Amino acid sequence: MLSNYMAILNLNENEDNIKSLTKNRLIASIPVAGRYRIVDFALSNLINSGVRNVGIFTQSKARSLIDHIGSGKPWDLDRKINGLFIFNFGERNSYLSDVEMIKNNMEYIYRSKQDKVILCSSSMICNIDYNEAAKFHEESGKDITIIYKKIKSSNNYFRDCNILNISNDSSVISVGKNIKVTELYNRKNLISDGNENVSMEVFILDKDTLINILNTCIKTGYWADLKDCIYNNITDLNVNAYEFKGYLSYINSINSYYKANMDMLNLDINKELFFNNGLIYTKIMDESPTKHFSNADVSNSLIANGCLIKGKVTNSILSRRVIIDEGAEVNNCVIMQGCHIKSNAKLSNIIIDKDNIIDKNKELKGDIDFPLVIEKKSLH
After folding, report:
1. What's the pTM?
2. How would residue 180 be classed by pLDDT, with cut points 50, 70 and 90?
3. Which distant-in-sequence residues (6+ apart) come within 8 Å of 47 by Cβ?
4. Which helix H or strand E contains 267, and what residues bound it?
């Protein structure tokens, strides 16, 4: 167990391609799989690995995140010693780099008794045991270990990720970007469909090394982003790479968010994500069970508590307190909390944010690769 590790969960994440779901919330607090939020996976992975000191750094739109996390009780982080620490910079239109955010709270790092750090983000969804990665890091004697995942070059759901170039002895030589590859390029064989080493944005390092990197950023002023500082100084730092071989989703776009939810309807992926290296914990809500009426028709779907279902639901994910009226048809959809789908409405390939009402006989259809998004409270 990683009792000598603290964790820094950095929520300064790229929202450019998922803004319709992040106008009033962070990526970390977007609902996923009906009952969960994206941040639940990062927190649960840390807790299941034995980390008991977690600092969350976020700069804006944190109300729903703080409401969800609370004191950290669902993750056993409501402690007198160690526990959960949230550092929030609340002005909605403010901009603070993660270096600036952490610099303003260096006392937290200095006062923490742990000697080693896991620095991570929330947008990578997986179920990982950090114990093996930490053991690999400590035995290697390197300054930093970056956890990565091999993907196919043509996998567009990991676009804009950082790509690690790794030597035979697992050292990181350089870092680049994963560019989006079109089907046209694939058909013309302009690139090979090989593997890319996608950085999971998880860094394992000593606390002294983290402090030295932060001091370098502050003194030189060259880097406002902690990850960029590490990536651009690979030749000066002694950096290692550890391969994660399980399921991974990267939530940085509407398409990747939709695909991650649809993947969770696959029984094998669902079992791995929620049970493989420990359970995924979330905020407990005291809700009545979902009621399936006699004319309900539900197949291959994840349904949270408190729903009322009278219509047809196929290959979909419903969050809490969703109402599906008689005659309504929901297919390949992600429907968030408090939505009401009225009678004879037909929905296909749709993401519906919280508290929307779809009128009677309404027909809405997206594409499996380009789902239609109904923003929060935009329909009543």
Report:
1. 0.93
2. low
3. 75, 76, 77, 278, 281
4. helix 267-275
